[in-house]
C-alpha cells in the first residue's frame, strides 16, 4: 500500500502542476448547477488524475467530482474517490488553501488517501497499514499524529462554509482559538495535532472527505457524523455527507456535544 500511496502522490503532483498553469491566467470559470464554480483547472486536474489512474490501475473504477455531472452513477466495492481541486473558491481567491484529493474506498470505507496542496507543495498521506505523514516540498517526510485537546481548545472552520452550529460551538467555548481556512487542509490540521476539532455544518460531498478521512484515521483521529456521532460511510445516495465533526480524540466529540446542548451519545 505504501508504494500505491507514493504513486498517488506523484499523480497528485502532476495534477497540481496542471492546476497551477491556471493560477495567473483566466481559469475560465463557469457555475455548476449547484452554483459552485468550475474552472479549467478543475477539469485539467480531473483529466490528469483519471488518465494516470486508468494507466496504472485499469481494473479500479474512478469516482471523481468532475465526472459526476449527471449524478446517476452509484459506487460500491473498491473504487478511487477523487476531488481534483478541492477549494475552487479559494483557488480563485488565490489564498493557497486548495488541494488535490485521491482516496481508495473499499466497502464503504476509505482505505488510504493522499492530499496535495499545489500552492505550497505540501502533501499528506496515510492508510490502513501506512503511518500518516506530512511531506514537505523537498520530499522530507514527518510522521503526524492527532492530539488530545488543548486548553483552551483549538478549532478549525471553513472560511467560506460555516453555519449556525459552528457559531454555537464557538459561543460554547468562548476562550477557544478558531482558525478559518479552505479545502481539506482543515482535516490535515486536526490529523497533525495543530487543531483539536473541525465542525462542518454546511454540506460536503464524499470526495471532499475521502482522502482526508483515511489520513486522519491513520494519524489516530476521528471523523464522525454530527450531532449523532456515528461513523461516516461512503457510497451514499448522491454522494452527500451529513454534517460532520473531525476530532483528534474521539472522547472530545462528547465534550463538544454536551457543551453545545446536543443529546449525549447513546
Ligand atoms: N451546498 C453544498 N452542497 C454540497 N457541497 C457543498 C456545498 N457547499 C459547499 N460544498 C462543498 O464544500 C467544499 C468547499 O469547502 P471549503 O469552503 O471548506 O473549502 C466544496 O468543494 P469544491 O471546492 O471541491 O467544490 C463543495 O464540495
Ligand atoms: Mg471539494
TrEMBL record:
- Per its UniProt entry, which superkingdom is the organism in? Bacteria
- Could you tell me where this protein is found in the cell? Cell membrane
- Enzyme Commission number(s): 3.1.3.7
Main location group: membrane
Residue positions annotated to bind Mg(2+) 2 are 83, 86, 208
Task: Summarize the protein's role.
Answer: Converts adenosine-3',5'-bisphosphate (PAP) to AMP.
Name the record gives this protein: 3'(2'),5'-bisphosphate nucleotidase CysQ
Name of the encoding gene: cysQ
Amino acid at each position: 500500500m505504501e508504494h500505491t500511496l507514493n504513486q498517488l502522490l506523484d499523480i497528485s503532483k502532476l495534477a497540481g502542476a496542471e492546476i497551477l498553469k491556471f493560477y495567473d491566467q483566466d481559469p475560465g470559470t463557469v457555475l455548476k448547477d449547484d452554483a459552485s464554480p468550475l474552472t479549467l483547472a478543475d477539469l485539467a486536474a480531473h483529466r490528469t488524475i483519471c488518465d494516470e489512474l486508468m494507466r496504472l490501475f485499469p481494473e479500479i473504477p474512478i469516482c471523481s467530482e468532475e465526472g459526476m455531472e449527471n449524478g446517476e452513477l452509484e459506487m460500491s466495492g473498491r473504487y478511487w474517490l477523487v476531488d481534483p481541486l478541492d477549494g475552487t473558491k479559494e483557488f480563485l481567491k488565490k489564498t493557497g488553501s486548495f488541494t488535490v484529493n485521491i482516496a481508495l474506498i473499499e466497502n464503504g470505507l476509505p482505505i488510504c488517501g493522499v492530499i496535495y496542496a499545489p500552492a505550497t507543495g505540501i502533501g499528506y498521506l496515510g492508510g490502513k497499514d501506512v503511518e500518516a505523514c506530512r511531506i514537505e516540498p523537498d520530499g522530507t517526510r514527518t510522521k503526524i499524529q492527532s492530539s488530545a485537546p488543548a486548553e483552551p481548545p483549538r478549532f478549525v472552520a471553513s472560511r467560506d462554509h460555516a453555519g449556525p452550529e459552528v457559531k454555537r460551538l464557538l459561543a460554547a467555548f468562548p476562550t477557544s482559538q478558531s482558525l478559518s481556512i479552505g479545502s481539506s487542509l482543515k482535516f490535515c490540521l486536526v490529523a497533525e495535532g495543530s487543531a483539536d476539532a473541525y465542525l462542518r455544518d454546511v454540506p460536503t460531498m464524499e470526495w471532499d472527505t475521502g482522502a482526508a478521512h483515511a489520513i486522519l484515521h491513520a494519524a489516530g483521529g476521528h471523523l464522525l457524523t454530527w450531532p449523532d456521532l456515528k461513523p461516516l460511510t461512503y457510497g451514499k445516495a448522491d454522494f452527500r455527507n451529513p454534517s460532520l465533526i473531525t476530532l483528534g480524540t474521539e472522547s472530545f466529540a462528547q465534550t463538544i456535544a454536551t457543551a453545545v446542548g446536543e443529546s449525549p451519545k447513546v
